[in-house]
């Protein structure tokens, strides 16, 4: 989306407004896309948010874009302040509660210079964002360049990993918080054991957020032979360098997965209850395995949250329909395929 805007309007200034620090600034830090970052924390007081929004109003933006998943109610309501800015806003198609429908009805009638773009079902998040540009770009968009969506500085990782052949595994997700989209640690233990039997000269490298470290220690995965535990130990550049040189990356629907997909490294993504159509990896080097029990895709269209699903099902149940044998078979096939093509070490 940002690349298309800069192509259409060279030299424009883009401000990205965030409510949570999920790492977007790290993804763009070394990219050719130069943007400013504006933080309005979700837990700030109403007065603090109002002061920040009023300061933004002084910038007199030509256009304000509000993607579907980045626009809390308080920010949508604040758009009334930007009276002279054109606005493009994602409009949910689901009916929602009476109060939600009333809110959107009022918003559509009150906001001047606004276009409302419907959120299409079964469409990826990347393309949903590009949909917001439909009325202002000159050429049709059929896709986007995955190769340049992540900018990073390649770092020497020899001090982090011994040996040149390794598989990267993200055994946990959500920075230590409970989540229904994680595969069981017992499955990862069995999978790593099988790798060590079938590919004895390969190393396993674990990645993840700092909050996942204690789960890794408790599970015993980090103490296995030929396993390097980098959970919480890498900065963004190091993570990208580790992923880029891997024989294979195995990850949940998460930030690690999206980065590996953007880097176009061999990726096996494990999916369960999350919205596959919106968050699926689209690189030709990516493959997906689905856990298709009754929880499959329940989060589609944000109908239910991770926390609600965590309370609804036992731990790891949502991902339990993916077997160790499936992951082992698919991953070995991917490793052999990339080795045969010369893209990775044999």
Report on this model:
This protein has 13 helices and 11 strands. The strands form 3 sheets. A 6-stranded parallel β-sheet has the order 8-7-6-9-10-11, with helices on both faces. The chain has a 3-stranded parallel β-sheet with strand order 3-4-5, with no helix packed on it. The protein is 34% helix and 14% strand. Helix 4 links the parallel strand 3 (63-66) and strand 4 (86-91). The chain folds into 2 domains: 2-144, 3-Layer(aba) Sandwich (Rossmann fold); 166-340, Rossmann fold (3-Layer(aba) Sandwich).
Could you outline the blueprint of secondary structure elements for this entry?
Elements: H1 2-8, E1 15-18, H2 24-29, E2 36-39, H3 46-57, E3 63-66, H4 73-78, E4 86-91, H5 98-110, E5 114-118, H6 125-131, E6 166-169, H7 185-198, E7 203-206, H8 213-219, E8 227-229, H9 236-244, E9 248-252, H10 255-262, E10 267-271, H11 276-279, E11 286-290, H12 306-312, H13 324-340
Parallel strand pairs: 1-2, 3-4, 4-5, 6-7, 6-9, 7-8, 9-10, 10-11
CATH topology value of the largest domain = Rossmann fold
Order of helices and strands: HEHEHEHEHEHEHEHEHEHEHEHH
Low-confidence blocks of residues: none
Which CATH architecture of the largest domain is right?
3-Layer(aba) Sandwich
Strand order of the largest sheet: 8-7-6-9-10-11
Helix content: 25-40%
Question: In angstroms, what separates the terminal alpha carbons?
Answer: 37 Å
Q: Give the class-level CATH name of the largest domain.
A: Alpha Beta
Number of helices: 13
């Amino acid at each position: 989306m940002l690349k298309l805007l800069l192509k259409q309007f060279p030299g424009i200034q883009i401000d990205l407004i965030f409510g949570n620090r999920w790492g977007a600034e790290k993804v763009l830090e070394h990219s050719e896309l130069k943007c400013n970052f504006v933080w309005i924390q979700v837990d700030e007081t109403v007065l603090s948010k109002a002061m920040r929004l009023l300061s933004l109003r002084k910038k007199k933006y030509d256009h304000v874009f509000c993607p579907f998943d980045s626009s809390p109610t308080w920010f949508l309501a604040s758009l009334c302040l930007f009276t002279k800015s054109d606005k493009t806003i994602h409009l949910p198609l689901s009916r929602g509660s009476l109060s939600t429908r009333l809110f959107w009805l009022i918003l559509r009638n009150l906001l001047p210079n606004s276009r409302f773009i419907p959120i299409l079902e079964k469409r990826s998040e990347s393309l949903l964002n590009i949909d917001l540009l439909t009325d202002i770009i000159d050429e049709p968009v059929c896709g986007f360049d995955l190769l340049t969506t992540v900018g990073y500085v390649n770092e020497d990782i020899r001090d982090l990993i011994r040996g040149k052949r390794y598989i990267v595994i993200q055994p946990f997700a959500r920075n230590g918080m409970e989540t229904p989209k994680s595969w069981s640690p017992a499955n990862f233990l069995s999978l790593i054991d099988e790798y060590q039997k079938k590919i004895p000269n390969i190393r396993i490298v674990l990645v993840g957020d700092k909050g996942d470290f204690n789960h890794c220690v408790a599970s015993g995965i980090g103490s296995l032979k030929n396993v390097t535990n980098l959970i919480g130990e890498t900065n963004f550049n190091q993570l990208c360098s580790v992923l880029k040189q891997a024989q294979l990356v195995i990850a949940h629907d998460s930030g690690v997965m999206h980065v590996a997909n953007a880097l176009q490294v061999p990726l096996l993504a494990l999916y369960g209850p999350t919205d596959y159509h919106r968050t699926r990896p689209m690189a030709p080097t990516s493959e997906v395995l689905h856990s298709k029990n009754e929880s499959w895709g329940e989060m589609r269209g944000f109908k239910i949250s991770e926390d609600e699903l965590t309370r609804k099902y036992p731990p790891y149940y949502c991902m339990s329909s993916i077997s160790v044998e499936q992951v082992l078979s698919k991953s070995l096939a991917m490793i052999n395929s990339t080795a045969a093509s010369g893209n990775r070490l044999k």
